[in-house]
Design a protein that fits this description.
This protein is α/β, with parallel strands linked by helices. It has helices at residues 14-22, 33-45, 60-76, 103-120, 188-192, 194-202, 234-243, 296-300; strands at residues 46-53, 81-83, 123-132, 135-143, 149-154, 175-177, 180-184, 207-211, 248-252, 264-266, 272-275, 282-289.
């Protein structure tokens, strides 16, 4: 599984890291309290996240089983947060003949996921759906690392193909996972509506997570590289969303043969940190350094120059 990391891995505690750092110095004069504080700050600013590039489930029960298995694997890999693709539980409905929406089943599944999150101490961004006053909405449900429910981020900007099946949500919000502040934009929003990402960065998000699902038309196509010039615009947009807002952008897809996109993490300079091989099932681990995610360019935006 692709990973990122600096000279000292983020799985070290601050105390272990300080001791390793101390070994590089020959005398006590150079190794003072300032050095210790600086290194501890660096360790605490680095957060490991997991992007679940999972197979497409055959049914809703399998989707729940995959979620639970992936949460355990992400926790074992030292991730403090795991993000799943769009509508992963119970499954994306466009182009399928799946069962009718079942809020009671979803409530039970969410309860199981929350309990495991609390046991593992891991935050979860779950691509799912929900029914609100007879309106079926695409949403991301966030669970805190103590197993409590953090809230929903509904999909506000639907793809035109989704409008007969789903209803749009309303409003945006931020979430927290330890030191990490993050927002969520879902599929079409992140590709076509950069304002959704900018809102999160302007309001303090270090990272924006982007659960999505790619409907494949040609399963023989395999990109040669990330943001391949001959590919669609989508992965180029991922690089732009990060660079134009000085924040991390984490995009998450299923492992789909022929998909034009894969799961990837992009840093605040718009540089690819890591990506999952196309169509390969697995977990992509990556590190987010909150001190690098300043939101500088997003905060410099002058809305009065654009909006009346």
């Amino acid at each position: 599984m692709p990973r990122t990391g600096g000279p000292i891995e983020s799985t070290l505690t601050a105390e272990q890291g300080v001791w390793k750092w101390k070994q590089y110095f020959s005398g006590p004069v150079l190794f003072d309290v300032l050095c210790i504080n600086t290194f501890q700050r660096l360790i605490m600013a680095t957060i490991q996240v997991a992007l679940a590039n999972t197979r497409i489930p055959l049914n809703r029960q399998e989707s729940l089983e995959i979620v639970l298995e992936t949460m355990k694997a992400a926790s074992s890999g030292a991730a403090t947060l795991v993000c799943f693709p769009e509508c992963f539980l119970p499954g994306y409905r466009i182009g399928t003949k799946d069962q009718m929406p079942d809020q009671e089943w979803l409530n039970g599944a969410w309860k199981i996921i929350d309990a495991l999150a609390g046991k593992l101490g891991i935050s979860v961004i779950l691509g799912t759906e929900r029914i609100d006053e007879d309106r079926l909405m695409i949403t991301a449900r966030v669970t805190n690392s103590d197993g409590t429910f953090a809230g929903f981020q509904d999909k506000v900007q639907l793809d035109p193909s989704e409008e007969l099946t789903y209803a749009p949500g309303f409003g945006r919000r931020l979430f927290h996972s330890g030191e990490l502040i993050f927002g969520v934009v879902i599929c079409h929003e992140g590709w076509r509506y950069p304002e959704t990402v900018r809102w999160a960065a302007r309001n303090g998000a270090h990272a924006v997570f982007h659960p999505h699902f790619d409907v494949v038309e040609n399963d023989q196509y395999i990109p040669v590289q990330f943001a391949d010039p001959t590919n669609t615009f989508h992965e180029k947009a991922s690089l732009c969303r990060a660079a134009e807002n000085t924040c991390y952008f984490a995009t998450v897809n299923c492992a789909i043969r022929g998909s034009s996109t894969t799961s990837a993490l992009v840093d605040p300079q718009g540089i690819l940190v890591a990506h999952q091989p196309y169509g390969k099932e697995g977990i992509l681990f990556g590190e987010i350094n909150t001190e690098k995610a300043t939101g500088l360019l997003a905060k410099r935006f002058k809305p009065e120059s654009v909006y009346e």
